[in-house]
Amino acid sequence: MKRMWIIVALFLVAPGLLFTVSCAKKKVVSEPGISEADKAAAEKAREEELARQRALEEQRLKEEEAMRKKLAEERARFENEDIYFEFDSATLLPMAQEILKKKAQYLKANPKLSVVIEGHCDERGTNEYNLALGDRRAKSAMQFLIDLGIPASRMTAISYGEERPVDPGHNEEAWAKNRRAHFVIE
To answer: What are the residues facing 183 on neighbouring strands?
Structure first.
């Protein structure tokens, strides 16, 4: 009988103990509060970091813009600097050779670019003769660039003869300007 009381007590007391332990309120442990000074310091540090990042981005954009401007200027210089020829000649003058050396350096520095070399003449002579002379001038410049290491596959020679004068005048000064090879980047 004593045993029975122990068993009954265990069946009644044990679940009661489990119920009271499992439903006990837990203590909430709170972290110490962050002071206003700490919050202000953290906000200031965040703002300083954002300002630093903005300054870096602005600097990067300025450098990018300067590089684009430099490339545009180099391209314009390449295209706007013609070489000139003597009357009825496709022989490269020393000044023309110097200009072509600079153009070769530019083309080597920009291997993805290709160029059209246009041969031009003054108005004297027949259309057929001037087209042939313009072709010889363009090919003369092209051959010089090939000799400097520029692949022929990156260049195209074309003749416009007297069709596209730079100076429409009818005197030696105008004719000298029109006897040229012009370069256009594709």
So the answer is: 117
CA distance 112 to 72: 15
**How many domains would you assign to the chain?**
1
Is residue 168 a part of any domain in this protein?
yes
The secondary structure of 158-180 as a DSSP string is: EEEETSS-SS--SSHHHHHHHSE
Q: Please, what's the largest Cα pairwise distance for the chain?
A: 141
Residue that wins the pLDDT comparison between 39 and 148: 148
User: What pLDDT, on a 0 to 100 scale, did the predictor assign at position 40?
Assistant: 84
Q: How far apart are CA 161 and CA 152, in angstroms?
A: 22
**What average pLDDT is seen over the chain?**
88
3 state DSSP class of 182:
strand
Segment among 17-21, 23-27, 134-138 with least mean pLDDT: 23-27
- Closest Cα partner for 114 from 149, 148, 153? 153
Give pTM, 2 decimals: 0.67
In a domain, 157, yes or no: yes
Q: Has residue 66 been placed in a domain?
A: no
* Domain contains 42: no
C-alpha torsion 21→22→25→29, nearest 10: 100
pLDDT above 90: residue 148 = yes
Residue 103: which domain range?
Answer: 81-185
